[in-house]
Amino acid sequence: xxxxxxxxxxxxxxxxxxxxxxxxxxxxxxxxxxxxxxxxxxxxxxxxxxxxxxxxxxxxxxxxxxxxxxxxxxxxxxxxxxxxxxxxxxxxxxxxxxxxxxxxxxxxxxxxxxxxxxxxxxxxxxxxxxxxxxxxxxxxxxxxxxxxxxxxxxxxxxxxxxxxxxxxxxxxxxxxxxxxxxxxxxxxxxxxxxxxxxxxxxxxxxxxxxxxxxxxxxxxxxxxxxxxxxxxxxxxxxxxxxxxxxxxxxxxxxxxxxxxxxxxxxxxxxxxxxxxxxxxxxxxxxxxxxxxxxxxxxxxxxxxxxxxxxxxxxxxxxxxxxxxxxxx
Length: 328
Prior knowledge:
Blueprint: H1 3-32, H2 38-43, H3 50-59, H4 66-78, H5 92-127, H6 132-145, H7 149-163, H8 184-218, H9 221-228, H10 233-255, H11 257-270, H12 276-285, H13 289-317, H14 319-327
Helix pairs in contact: 1-13, 5-6, 5-8, 5-10, 5-11, 5-13, 6-8, 7-8, 7-11, 8-10, 8-11, 9-10, 10-13, 11-12, 12-13, 13-14
């Protein structure tokens, strides 16, 4: 392994470590400043004595100062212990592991949908620039950009689940079954609406970016030369355009992990989908600091990994970047 490669990996590790430390500190300050009392959220409507309340406070370490609590949490984190969720009464690592499996299916399907649909819309819009179809696609994409995921999810739920009754109202499995007992077909059936809702958020950036790239390619000299030789428009796009616009689209798609993760929180809440986003929302409403901090760190690693993979893929596919890295 070359010195340049080692330096790159070392700087990547330093950046990720610095990012995680900063996110943990900012998240801790924000959660500690929250007006939600975790004890009140924990006991709910139950009537507890002052002594029982003090015992709960001592048990969760809420009687210590914020600085002490953060240092204790950070010390346990270095030992691989992210604490115990106040809401679920389980280790945070177990909650994240269980919920992320469900969220991964949702985000993965939405990620594929958004990439394919956005890329195809962008190509069609760019090739048919100035036409009515181009204007319709641009209007559609701009409308999606300005539409909140939560509202879009409610609208899709009302139309396809309530009015048409084509799909279930939510959950990850039929009522009366746990997710482990549901068949693959049943899980996919419950996954379609939330995945479609989440994929819509990523369609517009991919489509608009791809549209501009295909317009630039169609104006290039080699495409104009190919058209002058008698190649049809779509033949020129297939032979010369797709290859040149695919790389930026892939890079943008991997960089969209942050929006995908953030959108999943709202999509899961609308469809009562038992994923990591739904768990984060519940933890936020109940002041579950260990789980919120765990989700914040996990989401940072998730987004960082997506951006890192985009950079790696860009370097592998683009020979100019590979050569620049060798000379650098």
